[in-house]
Design goal:
CATH architecture of the largest domain: Sandwich
Strand content: 25-35%
Number of domains: 2
Radius of gyration: 26 Å
Number of helices: 6
Helix content: 10-25%
Strand order of the largest sheet: 3-4-11-6-9
Order of helices and strands: HEHHHEHEEEEEEEEEEH
CATH superfamily of the largest domain: Jelly Rolls
CATH class of the largest domain: Mainly Beta
Largest sheet: 5 strands, antiparallel
Shape: elongated
Distance between the termini: 76 Å
CATH topology of the largest domain: Jelly Rolls
């Protein structure tokens, strides 16, 4: 094993953008290597490898080259910065006051960017209410996961009933309508393309959950 003091230096903030430790952990996970197995393949100690992966130490180029060879990648793999990185967090406290509204507005799960093509949000439909997605002649796609309740979804003359835990993906250039059952509210995790726009929630008459009733609403 190679002595630690000869192979590493103190962590530098200038190298933080390269996320070397994260890249090493990702490679080891992908290769299904244990630290012990990687140590055998590189001749480095497990203690050294652990400190490098957790960014407590920065490897020398010679050490990094040993690891790269074990994983079958070149050194350039570790020195490319991310070109696109966007993070948006919605805390529970941000939407706790929405519960008093008759029809709570959609809860965004991220802040849409100019480059982003998807809108992620949680839609809450009170019993007997519906929400429209998409416009005539504009292709759109939606993925919906039912968190709670029963969701009736109508599109292209068809009706699907989804229960808690069900998922549906629909692509269409016609409007789609989804409705909560007449007896219980429904919460849906929705991911749509930007073309679909933000679902508009409108009050509807009490739904009988029949294909004819909901298809009539879409056609009108």
């Amino acid at each position: 094993m190679i002595p630690i003091d000869c192979e590493v230096s103190i962590t530098s903030d200038r190298l933080a953008d390269y996320a070397i430790g994260l890249k090493l952990r990702a490679l080891r996970t992908a290769k299904n290597f244990t630290l012990a197995r990687l140590a055998m393949a590189t001749g480095l100690s497990t203690g050294l490898l652990s400190k490098i992966e957790t960014d407590r130490m920065v490897p020398t180029l010679q050490t990094l080259d040993r690891i790269a060879r074990a994983y079958g990648v070149d050194l350039g793999h570790f020195f490319c910065k991310p070109r696109n990185l966007s993070v948006s967090i919605t805390r529970k406290a941000h939407y706790e006051d929405r519960k008093g509204a008759l029809i709570p507005p959609p809860m965004p799960l991220h802040i849409p960017t100019a480059q982003g093509q998807l809108l992620s949000q949680i839609i809450e439909l009170p019993a007997g209410h519906s929400s429209k997605i998409g416009e005539f002649g504009k292709p759109s796609e939606v993925t919906a996961f039912v968190i709670q309740g029963t969701l009736h979804m109508s599109f292209g003359g068809s009706l699907e009933t989804l229960e808690q835990g069900d998922t549906i993906v629909v692509s269409s250039d016609l409007p789609m309508l989804w409705s909560a059952g007449a007896d219980s509210a429904c919460r849906v995790l929705s991911v749509t393309t930007k073309q679909a726009g933000v679902p508009s929630q409108t009050e509807s008459a009490s739904l009988s959950a029949s294909a004819e009733d909901i298809s009539d609403v879409v056609a009108s």
